[in-house]
Amino acid sequence: TLEVQPRFTEDSSRLGQLLIRPSIGFKLSEHTVMSLGYAYVRTSPSIGALTHEHRPWQQLAFPIASTPGVFTLSNRTRFEQRFRDDGDEIGIRLRQQVRLTVPIAGSQWQGVAWSEGFFNLNDTDWGAQSGLDRWRNFVGINIPIGQGLTLEPGYLNQ
Predict the structure, then answer these.
(1) Which residues contact residue 105 at a Cβ distance below 8 angstroms, ignoring those fewer than 6 apart?
(2) pLDDT tens for residues 43-86?
(3) CA 3, 37, 124 angle in degrees (round to 5)?
(4) pLDDT in tens, 10-19
(5) What is the C-alpha separation between 134 and 97, in angstroms, rounded?
(6) How far apart are CA 54 and CA 1, in angstroms?
(7) Tell me, what DSSP letter sits at residue 2?
(8) Rounded CA gap, 43 and 58, in Å?
(9) Which among 65, 102, 105, 156 is placed 20 to 30 Å from 48, CA to CA?
(10) How far apart are CA 43 and CA 7, in angstroms?
(11) Would you list the DSSP string of 9-26?
């Protein structure tokens, strides 16, 4: 897979962060996938220095509950190893996401909502502190735009 996420600032006036995240997944069963990937994260805050982060990561994704044509509730657990250009230490982070998808009647689109907690497992010299790092909630629409290609616009609250 290849995931590209341009993230705009709160007032949508400029690009505050860009993520490029390729990965390869291995099916462990019909619905369970183990993935290995890498993320490049460029962050340009309105105040402070531009940073570049590199994140090798591993994840396991599987459904929790599903009723075909009605909903799917799924789990994703990801471990990241975070390297930043403004420090020497490696940050270890656990990300836990629960995601709900619901088909939109009369279309191939799906409504999407998810919630994800980010937990730092260690402190680093570049500012990561162990414990709860952030919590994200998203609501949007999954739109198929080609074979194996989707667009997922929506609102992300952090």
Answers:
(1) none
(2) 998 888 899 999 999 999 999 999 999 999 999 999 999 999 99
(3) 105
(4) 777 888 999 9
(5) 12
(6) 17
(7) E
(8) 22
(9) 156
(10) 9
(11) -TTSSSEEEEEEEEEEEE
